[in-house]
Design goal:
Length: 287
Amino acid sequence: MTAVLIALVVLVVLAVSLTGASVRVLREYERGVVFRFGRLVAQKGPGLVLLMPIADRMVRVTLRTITHTIPPQDVITRDNVPARVDAVAYFRVVDPRSSIIEVENFRTATSMIAQTTLRAVLGKADLDALLSQREQLNEHLQQIIDEQTEPWGIKVTTVEIRDVGIPQAMQRAMAKQAEAERERRAKVIKAEAEAQAATRLAEAADVISRNPATLQLRYLQTLTEIGVEQNSTVVFPLPMDVLKPFLGAIDHARAELERADGEPARELAAGEAGAPRFSRREREHAP
C-alpha cells in the first residue's frame, strides 16, 4: 500500500512538472519562437502557449522599443577637427523569427552597426555641419542603420546625436569667430540705421522748408519734451527771422560810422598831399 501511494505521488509530481514545463504565458508585448527538436515550428503569443514537454523549446522576444545608448566615438571630421560624439538609437523587433534565426544577438549586432555607421557618416561631415545640421545627419544615420538591420527583423526608428565634444582650443577659436561676427553685424546694422535716419531727416527738412510755421511747431514740441523731464534748464527758442531786422540795423549803423570816420581821414590825407614840403635845414631855420 505504501509503495502504491509513493508511486502515485511520484506520478502526480511528474505530471505537475510536465504541465509546468509545457505551459507558458506571454504578455501582450511578447512573442515566442518555438523550436521542436531544434527546428523552427511556429511563432506564438500573446497569451497562453502550450508546448510539448522535452521536445519544444521557446525563446521569448519583446516587441517594445529598445533605447540603446551608443558609446562615445572619437571621430575626425572632413576638415580635420577631432571630436568626441555620443548618440542614442531607438529600435524594435518587427520580425521575431528573423531576430532569432538570422543573428546571434540582435542587440549587440545593432549596437556595433550603429557605432561603425556613426564614425563613418560623421567623418564625412564638416564641423559646422556637425554642429548646425544635426537633423539631416540624424536622418542619414537612421536610414543607413535601418537598411543594415532590416534582414534581422529590426526596425530602427530614430537616431539622435546627443553631444559633440571638441577641444578647448577649438572652442576658444569658435568663440572669437562668433564674437567677431556679432560685432560685424552690429556695425552693419548701425550703418544702415544711420543711412535711414539721414534719409528721413532730409525728407523732413524738405517738408519744413516749404512751410516755415512747421519749424516753430517743432520748437514748441522740443520745449515741451524738455519740460516733461523736469530739468532745471529752460530753453527759449528764438527764430532767426525775428533777429534779422535788428541785425540789419546794426550792420547799417556800423557802415555809417565807418563812412563818417573815413571822410576826415581822406581830407587829412589829401591836405598833407597838397602842402609844400621843406627840407630839414629849412625847417630848422624857419621862424
